[in-house]
Design goal:
Structural class: alpha/beta
Strand order of the largest sheet: 2-1-3-4-5
Distance between the termini: 102 Å
Order of helices and strands: HHEHEHEHHEHEH
Number of helices: 8
Radius of gyration: 25 Å
Largest sheet: 5 strands, parallel
Number of strands: 5
Strand content: 5-15%
Length: 256
């Protein structure tokens, strides 16, 4: 009888030890995954493989990078033909705020050696839950990206952000006037520095400082009709930026 009791106790202890070991292993794996995420807050892995396979631009290529969040990332899904047979490279990641774009700037812009970069930033900062984001914070990140681009001979195209009346996932923030205020600062900075301003606000705005109902999916993201309008003004801004870049090079050559 005692032998059976000891056997049962041994089996119970062994099973408990194995369970604890498995639980510890699972916690370790989970912690490692969390650690991976914390180490890559800006999600550099998102485009890392595609950047490596892209390679350097060919002679004469006029590569243009689209750097932003979901507005740009969704564009490739909603209107893929806009990026086909063009040297347009979409590097939007949904949900990103301006400091994440700044962290990604070297990998997803500078290292790809584009002729121009389109920077669309600010709305997710305004919609964020941190509560301390100001226009000054957003503008500091935009300025840092712009200065890095200029340092590497990349033409800068700054975007006046799309209008938003309300965020479906964070109602009541009243972002309309905040975006208007931010856009005024972006416009003033672009004028001061000689950057091209790409106005996504005025072609889409309605009387409430939101997006026109026929041009949006949810009041924040454009639908196909909205992207068609964006495509038109984007092409105009790119053309202007590349022409100015050509003129600057000509002046530099003549100056030598």
């Amino acid at each position: 009888m005692k032998r059976h009791v000891f056997t049962l106790i041994f089996l119970f202890v062994a099973c408990f030890a194995n369970a604890q070991s498995d639980s510890s292993a699972n916690r370790k794996n989970t912690d490692e995954k969390k650690e991976d995420f914390r180490d890559d807050w800006a999600d550099l892995r998102h485009y890392q493989a595609r950047n490596e396979s892209l390679g350097a631009p060919k002679v004469g290529d006029k590569r243009v990078i689209f750097l932003g969040s979901s507005i740009f990332e969704r564009w490739s899904d909603m209107m893929p033909e806009f990026f086909e047979n063009r040297n347009y490279i979409n590097r939007g990641i949904s949900g990103q705020i301006s400091p994440q774009l700044l962290i990604r700037f070297r990998q997803d812009v500078i290292d790809l050696k584009p002729k121009a970069v389109i920077i669309l930033a600010g709305s997710n900062d305004i919609a964020g839950s941190t509560g301390h984001v100001s226009n000054a914070t957003i503008m500091n990140n935009i300025k840092s990206m712009s200065e890095l681009a200029r340092l590497h001979g990349i033409r800068v195209i700054l975007c006046a952000y799309l209008p938003v009346y309300d965020y479906p996932w964070r109602k009541g923030l009243e972002p309309g006037e905040k975006i208007v205020s931010l856009n005024k600062e972006i416009q003033a900075y672009a004028k001061q520095e000689g950057f091209v301003l790409l106005d996504y606000f005025n072609p889409l705005v309605d009387e409430r400082l939101g997006q026109k109902a026929e041009l949006t999916l949810d009041g924040v993201h454009p639908n196909a009709a909205g992207y068609k309008i964006m495509a038109k003004v984007t092409e105009e801004a790119i053309k202007k930026a590349l022409q100015e870049s050509k003129m600057i090079r000509k002046i530099q050559v003549q100056g030598k």
